[in-house]
Specification:
- This protein folds into three domains: 4-146, NAD(P)-binding Rossmann-like Domain (Rossmann fold, 3-Layer(aba) Sandwich), CATH 3.40.50.720; 149-175 and 213-298; 180-190 and 299-380, RNA polymerase sigma factor, region 2, helix turn helix motif (Rna Polymerase Sigma Factor, Chain: A), CATH 1.10.1740.
- It contains 16 helices and eleven strands.
- It has helices spanning 14-25, 41-51, 61-70, 79-87, 105-113, 124-140, 149-158, 183-186, 191-194, 204-212, 214-227, 265-273, 304-315, 319-335, 343-354, 363-379, and strands at 4-9, 30-37, 55-58, 75-78, 94-97, 117-120, 144-146, 166-173, 234-238, 244-250, 255-259.
- The N and C termini lie far apart (57 Å).
Length: 380
């Protein structure tokens, strides 16, 4: 059996780590060809010794020099171009795009231009430049397979169904750690509280996004591009149990729902092995032990980020890139305790209101809007 050759961009993050766990359990099916990370050389060293990639990349030049000293016979590239080089490795069959935030856009585009199948965890890529990315993928015949659990659920529910027969896409959200908190209590929550997600173990950025519900807003925009449905056909419901990962409603009123245990390795493995389904040694969902499944509407008064994401999506053009960039800056300030939790949406709203969106932007215009928004967010 020929092994599928995998590149993992963002190998030291939560999705990257889980991707390598899946590969470890299926070594007869997959082989790690390349790895890329920002600067966590200690974890990267462990991954190199276990999976023996042919080439690795580190964004941080100093970390790359140190890693070269540890592995003198292995090719270590560095900087943005080093990551891009790994993303477009000629021998790769599939590239896992798991770099956090806006930094994942260019490497993902590079992989698409090199005609690599993409397993996409980085939803910010589609938020910033969804039209550009999807057009490039279509032009080059590249499949984009979602790793995000909600998008993977939708992808599986839509399989073999006609898109024109879709009435609604319903994204489920756990509600994060602050579901039920009052507005006054939300104003005083700490980064430590926000990082205690009740269901999922994720990186810091996405965990804060889950607490503000911005993660769901980003998923709405990404789903709009991935599945070609109008923004107003995509809804969000709070589903505390995190068992139903998303639903699709069709024009005849039929709903298909995707259920499964809340474990990121499930959608990761599906993306790696697609179109096959392979056995996985995880705890199975026992329906007899589920006492109830609950659903409720999100409160956008307490969690305005979700509404702001819809607003940016409806404006279109460079507005989603500005939304994403401002959010990344605001989260960074919140984690450093330089901004309050409820200041995150206020900052995003201020910057969006100051922005003059460009319709049908070029990639250069998107990147300029991103840079402008980051500077503007620091002034708020």
């Amino acid at each position: 059996m020929v092994k599928r050759r995998i590149v993992v961009l963002g190998s030291t993050g939560s999705v990257g780590i889980n991707t390598l766990k899946v590969i470890e359990s299926l070594r007869d099916r997959f082989r790690v060809l390349g790895l890329a990370a920002r600067k966590n050389i200690d974890l990267l060293e462990k991954q190199i010794r276990e999976f023996h990639p042919e080439v690795v990349a580190l964004v941080d030049e100093k970390s790359a020099r140190e890693l070269r000293g540890r592995f003198k016979s292995m090719r270590v590239t560095s900087g943005q171009e080093g990551v891009n080089e790994v993303a477009r490795l000629k021998e790769a069959d599939l590239v896992v795009s798991a770099i956090v935030g806006a930094s994942g856009l260019i490497p993902t585009l590079e992989a698409i231009k090199a005609k690599k199948r993409i397993a996409l965890a980085n939803k910010e890529t589609l938020v910033m430049a969804g039209e550009t990315v999807m057009q490039e993928a279509h032009r080059r015949g590249v499949e984009i397979l979602p790793i995000d659990s909600e998008h993977s659920a939708i992808f599986q529910c839509l399989k073999k169904e006609e898109k024109k027969k879709v009435s609604r896409i319903i994204l489920t959200a756990s509600g994060g750690p602050f579901l039920g908190f009052s507005l006054s209590r939300l104003k005083s929550v700490t980064p430590q509280e926000a990082l205690r997600h009740p269901t999922w173990e994720m990186g810091k950025k996405i965990t804060i996004d889950s607490a503000t519900l911005m993660n769901k807003g980003l998923e709405v925009i990404a789903a709009h591009h991935l599945f070609g449905v109008d923004i107003d056909q995509i809804e969000v419901v709070i589903h505390r149990e995190a068992i139903v990962h998303s639903l699709v409603e069709f024009i005849d009123g039929t709903m298909l729902a995707h259920l499964g245990a809340p474990d990121m390795r499930l959608p990761i493995q599906y993306a790696l092995s697609y179109p096959e389904r392979l056995p996985i040694s995880l705890k199975r969902l026992d329906l007899t032990r589920i006492r109830r499944l609950t659903f409720q509407r999100p409160d956008t008064r307490k969690f305005p980020c979700l509404g702001l994401a819809y607003e940016a999506a409806r404006i279109g053009g460079t507005a989603p890139a500005v939304l994403n960039a401002t959010n990344e800056v605001a989260i960074s300030l919140f984690l450093k305790e330089e901004m309050g939790f409820m200041e995150i949406p206020k900052t995003i709203e201020k910057v969006l209101n100051r922005h003059k969106p460009i319709k049908n932007p070029t990639l250069s215009e998107i990147l300029k809007a991103d840079a402008w928004a980051r500077e503007e967010a620091l002034r708020c």
